[in-house]
Sequence to fold (253 residues):
Amino acid sequence: MKIYTLGTGAPLAYTRATMGILVEAEGAQPLLIDTCSGNELIRRLHALGKPLHQHHAILTHRHGDHIGGVLPLAIAVQPLHLYGPTDTLDAARQLIELTYGEIAYRVLDQTSFHPVAPGASYDIGGYQVEFFEVQHRVTTYAVRLTHGGKIFAYSADSVPCENLIACARDADLFLCDAICAAQEEDPAIVADLRKLAHPTADEAAVMAQQAGAKQLGLVHLARYATPAKMLAEAQALFHGPVDVPDDNACYVV
Ligand SMILES: [Zn+2]
Ligand SMILES: [Zn+2]
Fold:
């Protein structure tokens, strides 16, 4: 299974696109998990030499930095299947209706909305996918995806919680949001960023360690975050390989 980080930044990051993941595996269809915040989805895919042609996309929650990419996706890819919490799918539908006006109805004819729930297992594009309700400012699901005996766990946005540790249990790769280091130079910035309901790097590392994850990547960085500090904090607490990937990094599990 190949996992690409199309975007790794928080909404106001200067150089990173916002969160989007592309998963590819033999015998399965290309799958998006979150879609960046808009047309940056096309540019990150193009930089990887890939067209915008993914027919399946999971949306973890309704925040714009995760679902904005449905706008280019819905025009370019038909039919399109979207999966996520009910309120998230409603938000995606409204975005398409409100912004595309009269053509929205043609686009929506080709778009299917599939509500999912925690506790059930789904076949999405040839992957086995489970969802875990986590703690963020709106209804948000972490994603656990299994294919060919390998497990990929992804936390889009959540404060540390038991369900997130359960999602990452024994994962071959855990990509976890981490907004900054706990010990950034300016403590006022850390206090401010904590209000956004994300872990800091040390907290993400502790969860990965408790979950028995084999590898950890920290994503969803704020513009003020210091990747080197985040890496050092995580390495001190997580005993497996850990990194702070940039956009368009590729993991193979
Ligand atoms: Zn969010
Ligand atoms: Zn976010």
